[in-house]
Amino acid sequence: MTMKKEKLPLHQLLEAIDTPRFEGLKEHFTQLFTPTFLRKGRVLVDIGQVNNAIYFIKSGVIRSYYLKGSEDITSRLIAEGEIACVAESFFSQQESDEVMETLEDTMVYSISYEGYRKMAQEDILIAQLIIQLLEQRLVSFSERVRLFKYLSVEKRIEYYINQPYSLFRRVPDHYIATYLGTTSATFSRCLKTASFDKIQH
User: Fold this and answer.
1) Does one domain contain both 166 and 111?
2) Cβ atoms within 10 A of the Cβ of 133, count?
3) Predicted model pTM
4) What's the rounded Cα separation, in Å, for the pair 67 and 87?
5) Helix or strand or coil: residue 179?
6) 109 and 167: one domain?
7) Which DSSP string do the residues of 14-37 spell out, in sequence order?
C-alpha cells in the first residue's frame, strides 16, 4: 500500500512564484525568505524556546521530538520540499514543548514570524498561497495519524517504509521506531517479515 507521490510545499511555492500572477511580488518574496545552510545537529528550537521562524527545506532532514521521561519520542521526520516548524509554538508564539533539529547538513528557506505576519498583512497573494500549503500539510498529517491509529505496529512499519516520504535507511532506525509508536527491537523484528515495495531489504 503506497501513497501517491504528491507535489511538496516548497516545489509548489517556487512554481507559483514563477507564474505571471506573482510577477510583481518576486523581489519582495526573495527579501522575506532567507536561504540558510544548517549543519547536521543544529538545534533550531529547544524546549522552552519560542519557534520564531518557519523553514522550507531545500535539502536535508529535520526531526522534531518531545521528551517522555528520559526517552525522546520523534513527532516528525521531514525532508526536501517540506515545511518545518513546531506549529503550536510558531503560530501562538509560546514556548515550545518540543525540540527541532537537523539530522543532516540542511539547506532551508526561512521566514521569521514577524516576516510571516507582515506578509500576511501586505502580500495577500503570497499569504493565501502559504496558508493553502500549510492547510494541505495539516490535512495530510491528520490523514497519516488517523491511518496509523487503525493499523497494527507491523502494518504501520510496512506502510511507512513503502511511502515516497519515507526516510528509512536515511535516518537511524530508532528515530523511525519512536515516530511509529514502537521500540527499536520491535522495529528491527518487523523488518524481517515486512513487504518492501520501495526498498529491497
Assistant:
1) no
2) 18
3) 0.82
4) 17
5) helix
6) no
7) HHHHTSGGGGGGHHHHHHHSEEEE
User: Are 134 and 39 within one domain?
Assistant: yes
CA distance 192 to 117: 49
Burial 159-188 (b: 16+ CB within 10 A, else e): bbbbbebbbbeebeeebbbbbbebeeeebe
pLDDT in tens, 83-99: 899 989 998 999 999 99
**Total of domains in the chain:** 2
Residue 146: pLDDT above 90?
no
Q: Which three cell numbers stand for residue 86?
A: 513546531
Is residue 142 helix, strand or coil? Answer: helix
CB 154 within 8 A of CB 190: yes
| Residues 41, 115 share a domain | yes
Beta-carbon contacts of 120 under 8 Å, excluding residues fewer than 6 positions away, are: 127, 130, 131
Q: Which three cell numbers stand for residue 163?
A: 511511502
